[in-house]
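Fold it.
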Amino acid sequence: MANTAISLHFMFKGGDESERLRQEWDVLFKRVGQRQRARNQLAHFQTLIQPLESSERQFTLRPQIMDPGLLLKYQPEKDLPVFRAHDLEQIRRSFGRLSQDVRSFTENLVNAAKTPEEN
């Protein structure tokens, strides 16, 4: 819904600044979608402990073994996404960067909506 509202706002407002912000929003919205998919995977995956592996590979997140939908989605076995500790750290950092970028976009959007007297 946020995407529709912001897109409509820019469509009706017009102007160079609106076009720049719309393009910035389009890129940001795609990143939000990618992070949302990563979040859903993390939320619905299970932890697999492999004590005989190296410390980096001992703990992994992977689709739940007993979920037939996921098992059918990721055929063959090699296509199963697996997250290890370094992957999770990169994902954590990407959420932080995305949060900062959304906050910055919000500030730019609010400033663009102000009248000259409010600036």
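The radius of gyration is 20 Å.
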